Amino acid sequence: MQLFSACILILSVFGSSILQASEKITVAVTIPPIQTFVEAIGGELTEVVHLVPAGQDLHTFAPKPSKMREMLDVKLYLKLGGITAEDIWLERLVSLNPSMKVMSITRGIERIEMDAHHHHNEEEHHDEEEQHDEEEHHDEEEHHDEEEHHDEEEKPEASYDPHIWLAPSNVKKMGAQILEHLLESMPENEIVLNKNYEKFISDVVETDSDIQKILSDSDQSKGFLVFHPAWGYFAKDYGLSQFSVELEGKEPSPGELMEQLKEARTLGIRNIWIQPQRSSRMANSLAESLGGKLIVMDPLSTDWSNTLKKAAREVAKSYE
Question: Minimal CB count within 10 Å: which of 30, 70, 251, 318?
Answer without folding.
Answer: 251
